């Protein structure tokens, strides 16, 4: 992490004093920063069907339809409009730009299990997405141009009805700042904020995962469905005549309750679920195996010479019980735990690093699957 990122503050101090507690404005968090992609590169991504993007236009003179939302892929014609304020947002920039991926991982003083993605927004003068709040933490890093940020810690979170975006109906800003290139604003969850472009500008948003209890519960029960084994079947040899045949009798409920009481889970079950759930690629992410994969021998030579790097789309996390890659548990030799943990943390291995034959076999399989590659492949 660069020393200026938190205004000279240590990550420990930031976590203790600001994380999920209060906003932080950092002037020149990244000195000289103007972005990681050009405007044309950003527009190309927005027009790509494989990239998630949104186009938002504000129509102040159109009663009842002030906001317009268009999901991607975008068109170049749409991105040349100048009549009304508009902005285009591209999600997952870290998946398409090595520099974007490097920027995202400047923030890994927050556990990678919480890190979501890097979003970039481009706006013309007056463009923005309106006053809103997020359910997650976010760092807002200014690229080119200037953006005015108004924020508030307000209890009123009522929304404009029938709007295509979650626009706050009664936004009452308490703080007002203009961010210039390299400035950054951190906001905890649920802080209302409104960003408005002052001239042409770009803003890079580092967002974090914050699943709801309902989402976790539903996903866990689905995960457990494939792992539980309940023996026996419903039977009622002592069935007695009911007065009303439509009644679900208490004895039936008792028996089914007893059968379901056999469902159990352990801490390891929860840990494995969390590891697989948090590394599961998003629905729109696919991996491309190399057209000409290296043989095992040539692969080992390349890794020894150049090192190894995980693909930007790959998620590798570990816990007290194991390692998890792209939604699956990793089978590995316990003696390889240290280099595997190092790879998960730094997302790369250095040239000449001592690696066992079994570990190289694992890396070679990931190379064939498109999950990683010798570093020079994508330099």
TrEMBL record:
It holds the Pfam family JmjC_2. Residues 99-225 form the JmjC domain. SMART domains: JmjC. Keywords: Dioxygenase, Iron, Metal-binding, Oxidoreductase. One of its GO terms (molecular function) is metal ion binding. Its cofactor is Fe(2+). The keyword rRNA processing does not apply. This is Cupin. It comes from Parazoarcus communis.
């Amino acid at each position: 992490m660069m020393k200026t990122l938190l205004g000279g503050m240590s990550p420990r101090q930031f976590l203790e004093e600001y994380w999920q507690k209060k906003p932080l404005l950092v002037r020149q968090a990244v000195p000289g920063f103007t972005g990681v992609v050009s405007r044309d590169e950003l527009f190309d991504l927005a027009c790509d069907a494989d990239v998630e993007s949104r186009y938002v236009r504000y129509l102040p003179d159109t009663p009842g339809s002030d906001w317009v939302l268009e999901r991607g892929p975008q068109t170049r014609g749409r991105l040349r409009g100048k009549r009304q304020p508009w902005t285009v947002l591209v999600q997952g920039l870290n998946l398409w730009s090595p520099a974007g991926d490097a920027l995202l991982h400047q923030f890994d003083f927050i556990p990678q299990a919480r890190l979501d993605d890097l979003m970039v927004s481009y706006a013309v003068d007056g463009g923005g997405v309106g006053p809103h709040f997020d359910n997650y933490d976010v760092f807002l890093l200014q690229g080119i141009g200037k953006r005015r940020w108004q924020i508030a810690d307000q209890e009123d979170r009522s929304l404009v009805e029938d709007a295509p975006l979650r626009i706050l109906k009664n936004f009452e800003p308490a703080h007002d700042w203009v961010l210039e290139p390299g400035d950054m604003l951190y906001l905890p969850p649920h802080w209302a904020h409104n960003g408005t472009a002052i001239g042409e500008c770009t803003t890079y948003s580092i967002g974090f995962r914050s699943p709801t209890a309902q989402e976790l519960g539903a996903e866990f029960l689905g995960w457990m469905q494939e792992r539980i084994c309940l023996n026996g079947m419903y039977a009622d040899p002592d069935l007695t005549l009911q007065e009303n045949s439509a009644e679900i009798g208490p004895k039936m409920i008792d028996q089914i309750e007893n059968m379901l009481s056999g469902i159990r889970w352990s801490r390891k079950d929860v840990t494995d679920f969390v590891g697989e759930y948090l590394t599961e690629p998003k629905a729109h992410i696919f991996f491309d195996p190399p057209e000409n994969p290296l043989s095992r021998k040539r692969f080992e030579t390349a890794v020894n010479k150049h090192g190894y790097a995980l693909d930007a789309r790959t998620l590798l996390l570990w816990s007290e019980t194991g390692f998890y890659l792209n939604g699956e548990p990793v089978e590995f030799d316990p003696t390889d735990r240290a280099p595997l943990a190092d790879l998960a943390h730094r997302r790369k291995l250095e040239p000449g690093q001592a690696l066992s034959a079994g570990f190289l076999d694992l890396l070679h399989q990931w190379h064939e699957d498109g999950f990683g590659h010798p570093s020079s492949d994508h330099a």
